[in-house]
Specification:
Layout (H helix, E strand, L loop, with lengths): L20 H7 L1 H9 L8 H18 L8 H20 L7 H21 L5 H8 L3 H9 L12 E2 L4 E2 H4 L5 H17 L3 H11 L5 H8 L3 H22 L4
Antiparallel strand pairs: 1-2
Helix pairs in contact: 1-3, 2-3, 2-4, 3-4, 4-5, 5-6, 5-7, 6-7, 9-12, 11-12
Length: 246
Amino acid sequence: MVPLSLASDPVRVTDTDRPTPDRLIRDNIPVARSMASRYRNRGIDLDDLEQVAMLGLTKAAHRFDPDAGHDFLSFAVPTVRGELRKHFRDCGWTIRPPRRIQDLQSRIGRAQSELEAVLHRPADPGELADHLDERRSDVVEALTADGCFTPTSLDGAAGDGTSTLGELLGSTDPGMVRAEARVMLAPLVAGLGERDRRIVRLRFVQELTQQEIAEDVGLTQAQVSRVLSRILAELRNGLGDLAPAA
C-alpha cells in the first residue's frame, strides 16, 4: 500500500517531466483523502474509506495516459468516486434494498454531478429520470434508499428536540384489536343458543369463575367447563369460515 503522506500540489499533464504513477499517487493523496471524508458517518470507518480511495487513486495512476489531452485529476476523480460508491454498494448497506435500486443509486450519483455542472443547481428527480432514461418513481425510490447505509437512530432527537423518534412512533392500539374481535364474533355469538350466550357473557364480559357460572345457570363446574370448550370450538370454526380464501 502506498504510504499515506502529504505532498505538494496535484500534478497536471501540462508538467514537462511526465510524472510516473508513483509520483501521481504520492502527489494526489490529499485529494483521495478529501473524497473519502465526504462519505464519513455513513456506517463505514473513515480509515476503510481512505484505503478504498487510495485503491481508486492507484488504479487511475496506472491507467492514466498523459498523451490523451486531459489532466490527471479529471481522469482520477471519477475512478476514486466509483471505487467508493462500489464499496458502499457491496459492503455499506445496513438494510439491503433490491440490487436494481443499488445499481440505480450509483448511476444517480454520477448523473447528479453531471447535471449540477450544467444546471448550476441540484437536479430534481424528474430531471434525473430523464437524463438516465428511467422512471421517475424508480429514481425517487433509489434516492430514498440513501438512508439504508445508516438508518436514523430511534434515540435521536425529533421535532422540537424534546422527544426521540422512537417515542413518536405509533404502537398497536389494544382497543382496535378488541373492536375487531367484537365485529368478527358478534354474528357468531348471536347464533348460539340462549344458555350458551349467557355463559359466554358471564365468563368473558362479567369475568365470573366457572364455579360462579355453574351456580348461576344450574350446572356443575365440570359441565360448565365442557360447555365452554364446546362454545369456543364452535366460535373458532366459525372464524375459520369467515377467513378470506388464499
